[in-house]
């Protein structure tokens, strides 16, 4: 077991109607708030599922925070962009001397808010921080109301920012970027579309898989991961069948929250998160939905790395996650586990070929090179060369 130094400073406030605590929570951080949100779902999501007169989340946040001064940054897109969103947010924070950022939306809004939080306390170009040219000394506090279960950004220290002109999509991590407080009300996810719900299931499943397929794993961590995967599949299916199923949305939300902050792999060796390394290039080049890209890549990556050394991991995964019979040979269990992974994603409506999400062979070489140079996958669990990455991409077409 590897040594570690672990701390998650984020306060989670979970449950139906928890937004009522917002004014008290915000008052600990000051009076001037930058309210960040996306393309408009905030104006459709009901603030209180049992009380329609409270209006939309947007209206109710304003009503609750009537004694605060609010500056707004709207229009943050999926795969949030450095230019204009991060730059505009940093400018607004500096101009208005903002005390705290309130992010309302999915992972994209929150990721963008994290980059803004660091950029607002830095005198130079915020890209210096995101690209790790220099390290932040401070960041504004962040409070979030998460409305989509997927990324786990509400409980981790990372944000993923895209820079269109260079096809970069960088996972920017810093301990300063943990949200101070995350509000998780599962009813806010009732309105998430089937496409985004399925993408969220795939994203959180892949976060777990990236930590499960590693060296130095323990019985404890394996058990966490296996139960996460079973819960995500079972509750994910229920969310798709009945979007207003509170219990299923709630359990899926908590699974997603746990997915990315490292708690599932304390003591494991670093796996290098190879599927994320590959997917981030796909969504940087083609602006596709992150969870869909992961679902396409994951079974092809599994097939590619299956060998004598990795076989026992696949056997354990097949037996404990999918209940595959132990009477089969080890290789048959592994093949079946990969097939079941593919079939699950397909069964929840995810397009399972790159061509279906608008990616053809024309830029595969360029992307494989970009990934090999930037993502360090030669150090990953089952290391990948540029040719390996290209083969996985070709197999995903
Ligand atoms: O923009 P709005 O109008 O809000 O609509 C959004 C968006 O179109 C919509 N949506 C959000 N909540 C909704 C809703 N629609 C109806 N009802 C609601 N309650 O959903 C669409 C997608 O939102 P987005 O925030 O992009 O989705 P997600 O949360 O999956 O975030 C994806 C981004 O997070 C990054 C991904 O790479 C991608 O850029 N990731 C962040 C991670 C992290 N910080 O730890 C880890 C992940 O691996 C991931 O890379
Ligand atoms: Zn992810």
Please, could you describe this protein's structure?
The chain has helices spanning 22-27, 57-64, 82-96, 107-119, 127-130, 194-212, 219-241, 246-258, 274-286, 290-305, 311-322, 330-347, 364-374, 386-396, and strands at 11-14, 32-36, 69-73, 100-105, 142-146, 158-163, 168-173, 181-184. By secondary structure, it is α/β, with parallel strands linked by helices. It folds into 2 domains: 11-188, Rossmann fold; 193-396, Dehydroquinate synthase-like, alpha domain (Up-down Bundle), CATH 1.20.1090. The strands form 2 sheets. The chain has a 6-stranded parallel beta sheet, covered by helices on one side. It has a two-stranded antiparallel ribbon with strand order 6-7. Strand 2, helix 2 and strand 3 form a beta-alpha-beta unit. Helix 3 crosses helix 4. Bound molecules: 5,6-dihydroxy-NADP and zinc ion (ZN). Residues 151, 203, 206-207, 276, 290 line the site of zinc ion.
CATH superfamily of the largest domain: Dehydroquinate synthase-like - alpha domain
Q: Distance between the terminal alpha carbons, to the nearest Å?
A: 38 Å
Indicate the CATH class of the largest domain. Answer: Mainly Alpha
Shape: globular
Please give the share of residues in helix. Answer: 40-55%
Bound molecules: 5,6-dihydroxy-NADP, zinc ion
Question: What is the CATH third-level topology name of the largest domain?
Answer: Dehydroquinate synthase-like, alpha domain
CATH architecture of the largest domain: Up-down Bundle
In DSSP terms (H or I, runs of 4 or more residues), the helix count works out at 14
Low-confidence region ranges: none
Question: Which structural class do you get from the secondary structure elements?
Answer: alpha/beta
Task: Order the strands across the largest sheet as they lie in space.
Answer: 1-8-5-4-2-3
Strand content: 5-15%
User: What's the helix-strand series?
Assistant: EHEHEHEHHEEEEHHHHHHHHH
> Total strand count, please?
8
Rg measurement, Å? 21 Å
Q: Please summarize the sheet with the most strands.
A: 6 strands, parallel
Mean pLDDT score: 97
What is the number of domains? 2
């Amino acid at each position: 077991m590897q040594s570690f130094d672990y701390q998650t400073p984020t306060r989670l406030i979970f449950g139906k109607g928890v937004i009522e605590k917002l004014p008290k929570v915000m008052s600990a951080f000051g009076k001037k708030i930058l309210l960040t949100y996306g393309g408009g779902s905030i104006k459709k999501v009901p603030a209180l599922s049992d009380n329609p007169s409270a209006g939309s989340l947007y209206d109710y946040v304003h009503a609750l925070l009537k004694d605060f001064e609010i500056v707004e940054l709207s229009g943050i897109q999926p795969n949030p962009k450095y230019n204009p969103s991060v730059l505009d947010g940093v400018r607004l924070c500096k101009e208005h001397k903002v005390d705290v950022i309130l992010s309302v939306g999915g992972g994209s809004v929150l990721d963008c808010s994290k980059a803004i939080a660091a950029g607002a306390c830095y005198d130079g170009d915020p890209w210096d921080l995101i690209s790790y040219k220099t390290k932040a000394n401070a960041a504004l506090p962040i409070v979030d109301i998460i409305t989509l279960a997927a990324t786990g950004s509400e409980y981790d220290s990372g944000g993923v920012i895209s820079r269109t002109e260079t096809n970069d999509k960088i996972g920017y991590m810093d301990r300063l970027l943990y949200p101070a407080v995350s509000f998780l009300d599962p009813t806010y996810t009732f309105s998430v579309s089937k496409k985004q719900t399925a993408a969220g299931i795939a994203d959180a499943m892949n976060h777990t898989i990236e930590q499960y397929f590693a060296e130095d794993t323990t019985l404890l961590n394996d058990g966490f991961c296996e139960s996460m995967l079973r819960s995500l599949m079972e509750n994910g299916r229920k969310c798709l069948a009945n979007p207003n199923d509170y219990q299923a949305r709630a359990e899926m939300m908590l699974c997603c929250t746990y997915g990315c902050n490292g708690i599932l792999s304390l003591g494991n060796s670093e796996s290098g998160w190879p599927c994320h390394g590959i997917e981030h290039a796909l969504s940087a080049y083609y602006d596709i939905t992150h969870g869909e890209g992961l679902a396409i890549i994951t079974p092809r990556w599994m097939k590619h790395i299956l060998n004598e050394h990795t076989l026992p991991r696949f056997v354990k995964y097949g037996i404990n996650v999918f209940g595959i019979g132990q009477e089969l040979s080890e290789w048959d269990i592994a093949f079946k586990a990969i097939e079941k992974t593919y079939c699950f994603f397909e069964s929840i409506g995810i397009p399972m070929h790159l061509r279906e999400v608008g990616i053809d062979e024309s830029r595969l070489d360029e992307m494989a090179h970009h990934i090999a140079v930037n993502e360090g996958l030669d150090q990953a669990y089952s290391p990948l060369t540029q040719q390996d990455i290209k083969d996985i991409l070709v197999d995903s077409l």
